Model the fold of this input.
Amino acid sequence: MTVSAAKSTVTPIVPGGPWPTPDVTLASDHYWLARPTGPGTTQWASPFYPYASTGQGQYLLHHGADIGNPTGTPLLAPADGVVVFAGSDSATAVGPTINFFGNAVIIELDQRYNEQPVFVLLGHMNSVDVQVGQRVTRGQRIGETGSTGIALGPHVHVEVRVGRNDYDHTRNPEFWLEPMQGHGTIAGRILTADGRHLPNVPILFYPGPDFNSPRYYAYTYVDAMGLIWPDDAWGENFLLADLPAGAYKVEVSINGKVYYVDIVVEAGKTTWMELRIK
Done:
């Protein structure tokens, strides 16, 4: 990784509190989840409202990832497990309030992560085809895409909860969804020199071999530790999934300076990037 800096004019970014910094040399990928929709459907999560964002101030803090498809698109179990919630949330809140996810399914996975249970929620469903206590297998139909609850259009909200089946115990689901074929993930930390979180930092990705035009973008997480969480092993404060494998120049803009980082994304793997700013 190489870094250089150039002057620019940007909106001031105020550092937040200390950020977790686990040793990423000990981390490993845990892409345990299949995409919740099958071949011939949209399988990409929306880049406009990713995990730990507010859509640049337009929406509520996002605890998951959204995959848009027409109403009625079949939804599939992303992994083997047992259904612990199924149906309407009109009486039982599985989000911040009742009637938030509408029709939803929550599956407790057979696999555990660092001895902790892992739960996957699929929300805003049009219909639900499973019931509490039912065992499901990866790829099994469990319902249909819809727009029930608080939703602007038909999509499935995918949420990963670690340790507890609770809205405030989520992790970025794109660290769990298998990358699309030929694509990889970039994750990292952008912090102050003393390890404080830098929120809402814009990040642009220029694909090679020319590196002359940004094609992808991301932002660091909002300053909301305790409501959203980085991955236990990686400790990221930004993530961009499903980047085509290859070389990139990354542009990071912070308080009057633009930093450039050279990276190479590998298919099916996580590429790590860390930048500390004085």
The first strand starts at residue 3 and ends at 7. Confidence is low (pLDDT under 50) at residues 1-9.
